[in-house]
Amino acid sequence: MAEAYIVDALRSPTGKRRGSLAAMHGADLGAHVIKALVERNAIPADEYDDVIFGCVDTIGALAGDIARTAWLAAGMPLTVPGTTVDRQCGSSQQAIHFAAQAVMSGTQGVVLAGGVQTMSSIPISSAMLAGQPLGFTTPFAESRGWRARFGDAPVNQFYAAQRIADHWSISRDEMEAFALESHRRALHAIAEGRFAREVVAVPGMLDMDETARASTLEKMASLAPVDPDYPKITPAVSSSTCDASAAVLVVSEAALKRYGLTPRARIHHLSVRADDPIWHLTAPISATEHALKRCGMRLHDIDLVEINEAFASVVMAWLKETGYPHERTNVNGGAIALGHPLGASGAKLMTTLLHELERSGGRFGLQTMCEGGGQANVTIIERLL
User: What residues form DSSP beta bridges with 116?
Assistant: First the structure.
């Protein structure tokens, strides 16, 4: 099978909800990274085969096929198409998978994959249309088939995060310590300039991520739970809502030669698996096992892992089950500190993973994340530079 290569990856800074990027239209935020990526690489814009963007809840400013709209808002050629993917939180990781699969199949040679989410303007999940509050959304609750299979069991991320914490015997104190470390790592990475090469500043608005903060265990302990039924789950141990975009350039070997490009990484493996939708957030565990088995690797072959910190309990359970060292997981902080811009998170994590492999000299990096419906993508890349 043909190989798929990553030539470049960029992301916007992450703006906190109602923060510096709040007034930026979703198409313009997506266009920001698209324009930067195209201008940095020696491929004529009209020779891109496709633009695949992840986005969750494509309503309001994010409606109307945001991949295509963002490409056009960037001033790019009319002839290049775009399509938008929604695999919930894994949307832009799936966009990268689709781009790689198109290249591996030989049907396309140059694909821009990424994602965008403006959570300041579209802050909650699609079941907001049913008037439900954040996290407690079940847009399919009236489905006869669903109810026949799952009854009235809650499809609720906070319920799932609490259930995971209870099942894996993870205390609130332990999760708060984990969250504090996420902020510490993120602030350290920002201070050291580790994100400088991957972040494209938005002039006059935001130069660098603004979501990480110098919290304390005392402050975290003072926060009330998101709901009395879930006493361990507070905003401190949950990912923060934010605004961001990211994009990854995926090309074929023929395109490398045609345009004189140097590949930075090779897609070594990609897969997606699913688990119980009521548990909702546990699929990264089984998906990681499946991915390693499929490609004949062991976890100790992996130098770095990026796993989305939707909630502290999700990552902590994954660490307990896999035995992978926390010291090599989310080394520059995770979504608790750096934000989880839903449809952009997959490409955002891939961008950080690529740059950190280059900075640290690691060879293999693995990315995974929990996704709505009890799903999880896994991508393994091999650094080539």
Answer: 245
* Euclidean distance between CA atoms 250 and 258, whole angstroms: 14
Backbone angles phi, psi at 380, to 5 degrees: -120, 125
More confident residue, 147 or 292: 292
Confidence of residue 125 (pLDDT cuts 50, 70, 90): low
- Find the mean pLDDT for residues 117-121: 93
State yes or no: pLDDT of 134 exceeds 50: no
For 202, the token pair is 């938005």
CA–CA distance, 140 with 144 (Å, rounded to integer): 9
Binning pLDDT at 50, 70 and 90, where does residue 136 land? Answer: very low
Instruction: Given the residues 32, 280, 340, 355, select the one marked as catalytic.
Output: 340
DSSP symbols for 148-172:
HHHTT----HHHHHHHHHHHTT--H
Q: Which residue has the tokens 């790592």?
A: 185
Which of 353, 341, 348 minimizes the C-alpha distance to 381? Answer: 353
Identify the active-site residue in 89, 97, 268, 269.
Answer: 89
State the pLDDT at residue 50: 99
Give the amino acid at 15.
G
pLDDT at 128: 37
Is 89 catalytic? The answer is: yes
Amino acid at 116: V
CB 345 within 8 A of CB 376: no
Query: Which SS3 state, helix, strand or coil, does residue 80 take?
Result: coil
pLDDT at 239 over 60: yes
Mean pLDDT of 213-229: 96
> Which residues lie across from 113 on neighbouring strands?
52, 248
How many angstroms separate the first and last alpha carbons of the chain? 22
Instruction: Find the catalytic residue in 32, 97, 242, 370.
Output: 370
Nearest to residue 94, comparing CAs of 324, 287, 342, 270?
270
pLDDT at 132: 39
Place of tokens 């991520």: 209
CB atoms within 10 A of CB 293: 11
Q: What amino acid occupies position 182? A: S
